[in-house]
Amino acid sequence: MKKKLPRWLATGSLALVLALALHAADQPQWGACFTRNMVSAEQNLPDRFDPKTGLNIKWAAELGTSTHSTPVVSGGRVLIGTNNGKPRNGRQTGDRGVLMCFSEADGRFLWQLLVPKRGPSVYWDWPNAGICSPATVDGRQVYVVSNRGEVMALDLDGLANGNEGWQDEARHATPPGSPPPPLDGTDADILWLHDLTRELGVRQHDSAHSSILVHGPYLYVNTSNGVDDSHKRIDAPEAPSLAVFEKTTGRLMAVDGERIGPRIFHCTWASPALAETGGRAVVVFAGGDGVVYGFEPLPFDAATGRPTAGAAPGGEIRKLKRVWRFDCDPTGPKENVHQFNGNRKESPSNIKSMPVVHEGRVYVTVGGDLWWGKHEAWLKCFDAQGSGELTATAQAWSYPLVRHSMSTPAVVDGLVFAADCGRRLHCVDARTGQAYWTHDAKGEFWASPYVVDHKVYIGSQRGDFLVFAAGKEKKLLAEIDLGSPVSATAVAANGVLYVANQTHLYAVQAR
Description:
By secondary structure, the protein is mostly beta strands. Helices cover about 5% and strands about 35% of the residues.
């Protein structure tokens, strides 16, 4: 069912929706509302918990054996991507991408999306990585990018309320050559899907990793275009990095026209944000070339919430109009970028974290890749209220990191919290970029710092989960051993903190 959207949302005015997002009970998307800020207004969350003793554990749910997705919470459901290392369905075993859905009230398993691995090599869909893309929920529809690079719309209730839309779920969940088993109420209900490889020529690398941005009737999707198996060539240089779909039908509406492909150093990792800057709405997208782009969002009817952007003249797919461009590493190499793969002193930069928009500024981590290129990396802040080429004029400050960062920053109360793969958490002044404090952890950070209830929560690849006071002075409140690496960012919703390691999802609530 299509819903009428409020005029303030349809026209792109975000001030009210941002305020509502910070006080919303559910957390239907990775990051606060459109801005991607890792901040929540939830309160009364505990500063410590213990899965071993049950301290402040409301419930725990078993996942697969490898989990790199962040949970989202909406409509009484908790959804998280994982793998099939511990099959819920005895008829569907073996390596799969899995999106699991649990009851928010008690952690009861409700349904799952099972997606076979894709080829032609492991570099398209890394073994046992599972579904890495966090889901996005809008009403009773779930939007997710599968491990096969499929943009999918699912029913939040699964097949328990009947099979709507697309009817070939059984065949889709089964590898070629195997007979599809019968479906039941614990299977996902696919409403539509769009294959990015088949229909846009995208060559994903390692997996698809996109948190879909919903704006009005549109979905903005990072395509995960990247290098080939040799890591020295872009197989799909003309494929888009950002694509836009109509959310009710899956119809492709637009793509970026920046031809980012040849400059992608490793892959397109970052998901888009939406900002109101200079009195206008802008889609903020960090490319695999170390450049942050601002695009005009597609228009839609204020009264009905329906698309008003049709096909471009001649029937071609519409190209997004660029508003501005900011190169986070202007002195880095721009041509023949893959000759620098093994060079740890000089290389291009790429961006794995999402850009965060706060009070007209964009905060983003950028630098040499974790596995390739230079060790140099930064937390950057620039003013996004201008137009055109912003590289030489818009930067407010640049703060050095230890190593490349996979973590999205959290900006709150004049502070920025950022983490990197040099095992360091940073607390920086949001206005000046000066450090207040740092903390050296025992493991790399792949998860993002999450600020809620005046506390900073973050887990490491060593399995340590750290809790700090969210202030200018460093105060470590707790260090919890979760027993396996943490890639997922913590999420708060309805008075509960959700924390996932590789094998379990924990609902944490003060008792």
